[in-house]
Design brief:
The protein has a single domain, classed as Rossmann fold (3-Layer(aba) Sandwich). It has 7 helices and 7 strands. By secondary structure, it is an alpha/beta fold. Helix 1 (13-24) packs across helix 7 (212-222), helix 2 (59-71) packs parallel to helix 3 (94-119) and helix 3 (94-119) runs parallel beside helix 4. It has a 7-stranded parallel beta sheet with strand order 3-2-1-4-5-6-7, with helices on both faces. It comes from Sphingomonas populi. This is SDR family oxidoreductase. Keywords: Oxidoreductase, Signal. InterPro entries: NAD(P)-bd_dom_sf, SDR_fam.
Length: 244
């Protein structure tokens, strides 16, 4: 039975689907979420919840220590927290930039730093970051968000090189347009949300947005022994959108 630390808004979206997937296969999960009132489905694996803000500097070490104490160690670290902000170039502020990077780039690094000693003792140690195809393509009004995700790609490669000798795998999943409250909030920044969404869906080869469970399945693979020789890479889950 694996012990998983999942950091993300687990009441919704990809993080929620990941918690359900891990627990269904019998894994124990510690969920870190800024919202203490989570409605998580039952599962075979145990689930504990730590209510903490993602930008709390003390959170990474506290969460990792609690997971190790509750579950006797850590096998996988999943960081699915994300911060999105959209504004014209002229309207971006340093505060907004810092808030996006604190969650999307600083948090993954320091949680990985705290988890590494525990992961090194596992027979199947894995770190999986949930990034975005925004790391590879441009889009108006979200350049700082894209920059944070591009930085996460470099972080994956650097950590894979450093932690590989300890047997720790480090990978990322790059979702495209996924049906979640996170992406739905983006559509609402558009003058005509339905038209903007329709235009994107028409260009995706599979002609639809993805489902959170479809991303969770890839996360589950990367955290499993089946991915024992996969590290330093990114798997795109976007229905072919970035391939055409």
């Amino acid at each position: 039975m694996a012990s998983i630390v999942l950091i993300g808004a687990a009441a919704t979206g990809i993080a929620q689907a990941s918690v359900a997937m891990f627990r269904a296969r019998g894994d124990d999960v510690l969920v870190v979420d800024a919202d203490p009132a989570l409605g998580l489905a039952d599962g075979a694996g145990r689930c504990h919840i730590l209510a903490r803000d993602f930008d709390d500097p003390a959170m990474p070490r506290e969460a990792i220590a609690l997971a190790a104490d509750l579950h006797g160690g850590i096998d996988s670290l999943i960081v699915a927290a994300g911060a999105m902000h959209a504004a014209t170039l002229a309207d971006w502020t340093q505060t907004a930039w810092d808030a996006v990077h604190a969650v999307n780039l600083r948090l993954p690094f320091f949680v990985a730093q705290a988890a590494a000693p525990y992961l090194a003792a596992s027979a199947n140690p894995a770190i999986v970051f949930v990034s975005s195809t925004a790391a590879r393509r441009g889009q108006p009004q979200t350049a700082p968000y894209q920059a944070s995700k591009a930085g996460l790609s470099a972080l994956v490669r650097g950590l894979a090189a450093e932690l590989g000798p300890a047997g720790i795998r480090v990978n990322a999943v790059l979702p495209g347009w996924i049906e979640t409250p996170f992406s739905n909030a983006f559509w609402q920044t558009k003058a005509d949300p339905a038209a903007a969404r329709g235009a994107v869906e028409r260009r995706i080869p599979l002609r639809r947005q993805g489902k959170a469970g479809e991303v969770a399945a890839v996360i589950g693979f990367l955290a499993s022994p089946a991915a024992c020789y996969v590290t330093g890479t990114e798997i795109v889950v976007d229905g072919g959108d970035s391939a055409v």
